[in-house]
């Protein structure tokens, strides 16, 4: 079997910033409350003329440049998103055309905040089986369009952006790449984090708002539990030790969730990558953005062992153990 290596990484953030003091003007809250309870000081959000495919396109371009590849080298394109530009067509097709890829397979994958790691697992299978040489996976979301800026329990968290990996086939004995991946779901909790309106059950304009509704306290506890369990599952499955992990990169939902996952795993905080303070929670984009940020600032080096874990509405959760 071939190996699936992370050949390129890139990300893109919209320029517009939404600060805590601006949120103080919208709902009854304070900068101090938001920073203490979430670790977020500001978030990046889309301009009126920007949407998910724009962020996905820029992140994909950055990952291709990092991989030293052309769009025509890509054999399959997957965009993980819960906030497509349109319900139809897939964002992946818009990105395929804009990049100038061949007429390759291109589809969206919807697994909320665990979408990017689900896409990584799909890419891993295609590449390890020898079906494709290069798979481009993108996590891109524009949560600001589905955020209720009258709900102080959610509008403090959500943000926009995109991140991407090029996952490539290798038979070099020196490479390790993706070691193991895992994904899970439990749909019984769907109503604890969902968008009631805008889908086929309650179409747009028929009462329910197309805005995120969340039971934050419940999701908080579930998130900590499933991300810590996922990391332990991957260690058990691969026979690796916690001490071998160079970087723990959890979904960036809330700094207190990130801290609690590290604490639950008894993992040193200085080896945890967090980008939430100035970016916020941009769903399927948080993990590739955090990986890209830590590569660019010199923390993550080639050969480092990365533990990636995510959870999101659904519920869905998953993880990946990867040698970068
Ligand atoms: N400002 C001030 N007070 C607030 C705010 C706010 N922005 N939001 C809630 N409060 C109040 C509540 O009303 C409550 O008041 P009460 O005690 O008088 O009832 C009090 O603060 C405590 O509320 P909690 O909900 O218990 O606050 P908590 O510490 O849990 O923080 C938060 C809320 C930040 C939402 C947290 O629960 C959280 O981050 N949950 C998980 C979110 C998450 O990970 N979501 C998944 C997203 S991933 C995806 O799929 C998009």
From TrEMBL:
Main location: cytoplasm
Organism of provenance: Alicyclobacillus vulcanalis
Protein name per its UniProtKB record: Beta-ketoacyl-[acyl-carrier-protein] synthase III
Pathway(s): Lipid metabolism; fatty acid biosynthesis
Domain characteristics, as noted in the entry: The last Arg residue of the ACP-binding site is essential for the weak association between ACP/AcpP and FabH.
Underlying gene: fabH
Record's function text: Catalyzes the condensation reaction of fatty acid synthesis by the addition to an acyl acceptor of two carbons from malonyl-ACP. Catalyzes the first condensation reaction which initiates fatty acid synthesis and may therefore play a role in governing the total rate of fatty acid production. Possesses both acetoacetyl-ACP synthase and acetyl transacylase activities. Its substrate specificity determines the biosynthesis of branched-chain and/or straight-chain of fatty acids.
Every Beta-ketoacyl-[acyl-carrier-protein] synthase III N-terminal domain range: 107-187
A Pfam family the protein falls into: ACP_syn_III_C
Reaction it catalyzes: 3-methylbutanoyl-CoA + malonyl-[ACP] + H(+) = 5-methyl-3-oxohexanoyl-[ACP] + CO2 + CoA; 2-methylpropanoyl-CoA + malonyl-[ACP] + H(+) = 4-methyl-3-oxopentanoyl-[ACP] + CO2 + CoA; malonyl-[ACP] + acetyl-CoA + H(+) = 3-oxobutanoyl-[ACP] + CO2 + CoA; (2S)-2-methylbutanoyl-CoA + malonyl-[ACP] + H(+) = (4S)-4-methyl-3-oxohexanoyl-[ACP] + CO2 + CoA
Cellular component aspect of the GO annotation: cytoplasm
EC assignment: 2.3.1.180
Domain of life: Bacteria
Active site, per annotation: 113, 251, 281
InterPro entries registered for this protein in UniProt: ACP_syn_III_C, ACP_syn_III_N, FabH, Thiolase-like
Family in the record: Belongs to the thiolase-like superfamily. FabH family.
A GO BP entry: secondary metabolite biosynthetic process
Keywords carried by this UniProt record: Acyltransferase, Cytoplasm, Fatty acid biosynthesis, Fatty acid metabolism, Lipid biosynthesis, Lipid metabolism, Multifunctional enzyme, Transferase
Domain Beta-ketoacyl-[acyl-carrier-protein] synthase III C-terminal: 235-324
NCBIfam families the UniProt entry points to: fabH, PRK09352.1
Phosphoprotein in keyword set: no
Subunit comment: Homodimer.
């Amino acid at each position: 079997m071939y190996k699936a290596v992370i050949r390129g990484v890139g990300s893109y953030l919209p320029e517009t910033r939404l600060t805590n003091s601006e949120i103080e003007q919208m709902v009854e809250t304070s900068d101090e409350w938001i920073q203490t309870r979430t670790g977020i000081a500001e978030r990046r959000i889309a301009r009126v003329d920007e949407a998910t495919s724009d962020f996905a396109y820029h992140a994909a371009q950055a990952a291709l440049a990092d991989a030293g590849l052309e769009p025509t080298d890509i054999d399959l394109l997957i965009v993980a998103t819960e906030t497509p530009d349109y319900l139809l067509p897939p964002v992946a097709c818009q990105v395929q055309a804009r990049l100038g890829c061949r007429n390759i397979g291109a589809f969206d994958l919807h697994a909320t905040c665990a979408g990017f790691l689900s896409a990584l697992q799909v890419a891993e299978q295609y590449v390890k089986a020898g079906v494709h040489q290069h798979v481009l996976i993108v996590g891109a979301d524009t949560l600001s369009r589905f955020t209720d800026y009258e709900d102080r329990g959610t509008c403090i968290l959500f943000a926009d952006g995109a991140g991407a990996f090029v996952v490539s086939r290798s038979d070099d004995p020196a490479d390790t790449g993706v070691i193991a991946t895992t994904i899970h779901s439990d749909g019984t909790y769907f109503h604890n984090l969902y968008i009631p309106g805008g889908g086929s059950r309650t179409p747009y304009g028929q009462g329910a708002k197309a805005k995120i509704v969340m039971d934050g306290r419940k999701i908080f506890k579930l998130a900590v539990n499933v991300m810590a369990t996922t990391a332990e599952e991957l260690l058990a499955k691969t026979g690796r030790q916690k001490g071998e992990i160079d970087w723990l990169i959890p979904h960036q939902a809330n700094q207190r969730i990130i801290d609690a996952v590290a604490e639950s795993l008894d993992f040193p905080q200085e080896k945890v990558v967090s980008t939430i303070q100035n970016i916020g929670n941009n769903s399927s984009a948080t993990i590739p953005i955090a990986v890209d940020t830590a590569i660019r600032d010199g923390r993550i080096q080639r050969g480092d062992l990365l533990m990636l874990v995510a959870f999101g509405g659904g519920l869905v959760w998953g993880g990946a153990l990867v040698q970068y």
